[in-house]
Automatic annotation (TrEMBL):
Subunit note: Homohexamer; trimer of dimers.
Biased composition (Polar residues): 501-511
Stored SMART domains: Alpha-L-AF_C
Class of enzymatic activity (EC top level): hydrolase
Keyword annotations: Carbohydrate metabolism, Glycosidase, Hydrolase
Any Pfam family the entry gives: ASD1_dom
Chemical reaction(s) catalysed: Hydrolysis of terminal non-reducing alpha-L-arabinofuranoside residues in alpha-L-arabinosides
Biological source species: Promicromonospora soli
Name this protein carries in UniProt: non-reducing end alpha-L-arabinofuranosidase
């Protein structure tokens, strides 16, 4: 059985916007094993001279990560950054209240920023607006970006780093509306603090971009009102407002889980509308964009909650979800949604990079491996270049419990100097035939890759990841599943059930 056909209309002249490379960001928080035995493990067989795992760094490059957010997350809201700079042997451990873990302070600002620099990654730094404020935020910025001759810049130089780090992207706190956040604030309290901190930081370095905290999720009771209030205080100062969202299968409801991209799409549109309303009210020509700096599949029902964690040491295993082919299909579909909002979402961070709900997993002293979710992210980061095309998609719908009617097929495409990438998700349980119409342009598909959903429970360990990859990820059968003559105005692609597919080729307009 095959579902009704779908149709995708694309044209090289119709675009959404340029794909910002920061869309393929990730996140390293001092949480569980994200840092210690994640990116950093002195004594590991692959460790470099700075104690960072080379195998993880190589996989990070393969993943295509461009930006990494640091040091949190919930962690940042009770963090004293100055306790983690200078000689490591003189640093004192402290109890992180967010994750109830003793933080050794072995990796701090300098270690992270120098790792990012060596790996060609743009850092995205967060300041503590939970238990601290304007003075500490300005000091950290001065430490990172200041020239010689001031207190904090001179401290950086004394610690061995002459050249400023020139960090451009800064988060004004993290999830400040969340009751789980140390130093939680209401919208007015946070808006005033973010305004004062942002103004002072821009006096230190006017070239930086600032991210104001949006709602922690669309389900927060103050969603919408929070964005309006915070932006009324900060609209002229900040460049982006943050969004965070996690998705997972609930009670075997595959249809709703596969439709998660529709929920993400609605979330983006509502936050953008909230921001635009403030801009219109203030008669501003400025357009606030979105930093979707936490997104992923996360089975939160498996996590007991921060308050139920015992106090632990030595990088405990926290939130180490193991992923399936189904999870990977959903991650691919969420990337489709982000690409289709390239005009409004220039920054996004898959949370997180290593071990904690991550595409990369490690064993202390052992190997590092790719989870199934690694593959759609890496493929999209590699292929999605240039402009996102403004597609028109018509498809049958699927009825879901969580999202109502959702399209059975979603699509995104990018174009750079004739090189086209087309990303397609089939959310239905049956194969679907997609007509890709390209009137006035010639489309030639050269190669492709596809992930199909599995029906097996995830199992801890690299063997499971390798099995899922072998059975559900691989090259797409272009010859067998793509039909269309060289001079035709449309190309037909047959998608497997519950699958995500990436195709690459050329799209040329007639001369």
């Amino acid at each position: 059985m095959q579902t009704s056909p779908a149709r995708v209309l694309l044209h090289p002249d119709f675009t959404v916007g340029t794909v910002d490379r920061r869309l393929f960001g990730s996140f390293v928080e001092h949480l569980g094993r994200a840092v210690y035995t994640g990116i950093h493990e002195p004594g590991h067989p692959t460790a470099d001279g700075h104690g960072f795992r080379r195998d993880v760094a190589d996989l990070t490059r393969e993943l295509g990560v461009t930006t990494v957010r640091y040091p949190g997350g919930n962690f940042v809201s009770n963090y004293r950054w100055e306790d983690a700079v200078g000689p490591v042997e003189q640093r004192k451990p402290f109890l992180d209240l967010a994750w109830r873990t003793v933080e050794p302070n072995v990796v701090g600002t300098d270690e992270f920023l120098q790792w990012a620099e060596r790996e060609g990654i743009q850092p995205m730094m967060a300041v503590n607006l939970g238990t601290r404020g304007v003075e500490e935020a300005v000091a950290l910025l001065e430490y990172c970006n200041g020239e010689a001759g001031t207190r904090w810049a001179d401290l950086r130089i004394a610690n061995g780093r002459e050249k400023p780090y020139d960090v451009k992207l800064w988060c004004l706190g993290n999830e400040m509306d969340g009751p789980w956040q140390v130093g939680r604030k209401d919208a007015h309290e946070y808006g005033k603090l973010a305004r004062n901190a942002g103004r002072a930081m821009k006096q230190v370095d006017p070239s930086i971009e600032l991210v104001a905290c949006g709602s922690s999720s669309m389900e927060m009771p103050t969603f919408g009102e929070w964005e309006r209030t915070v932006l009324e205080y900060t609209y002229d100062l900040v460049d982006h407002i943050s969004m965070h969202a996690y998705y997972h299968e609930v009670d075997g409801d595959r249809a709703s889980f596969l439709g998660s991209g529709t929920a993400m799409d609605r979330f983006i549109e509502r936050v953008a509308a909230s921001a635009d309303a403030v801009g219109a009210q203030s008669r501003s020509d400025k357009r606030i964009t979105i930093s979707f700096d936490e997104w992923n599949v996360w089975y939160q029902s498996r996590f007991p909650g921060e308050d139920n964690l015992p106090i632990q040491k030595d990088a405990p295993r926290i939130i180490e979800d193991v992923y399936s082919g189904l999870d990977a299909v959903v991650v691919g579909d969420l990337l489709v949604t982000l690409l289709n909002h390239a005009d409004r979402v220039p920054v996004a961070c898959l949370a997180q990079l290593v071990n904690v709900i991550a595409p990369i997993m490690t064993e202390p002293g052992g190997e590092a491996w790719r989870q199934p979710t690694f593959h759609p992210f890496a493929t999209t980061a590699r292929l999605a270049q240039g402009d996102a095309l403004d597609l028109r998609v018509s498809a049958p719908t699927i009825t879901t419990k969580a999202h109502g009617e959702v399209p059975a097929v979603t699509a995104a495409a990018t174009l750079a100097d004739g090189a086209v990438a087309l990303f397609l998700t089939n959310r239905s349980a049956e194969p679907v035939e997609v007509e890709v119409a390209h009137l006035g342009a010639a489309l030639e598909i050269a190669e492709g890759w596809s992930m199909t959903a599995d029906h097996e429970p995830a199992v801890v360990g690299p063997e499971h990841a390798e099995k899922v990859t072998a059975e559900h990820w691989g090259e797409f059968d272009v010859a067998g599943r793509v039909a269309g003559d060289a001079g035709a105005s449309s190309t037909t692609v047959t998608l497997p059930p519950e699958s995500w597919t990436a195709l690459s080729g050329t799209l040329t307009s007639p001369k």
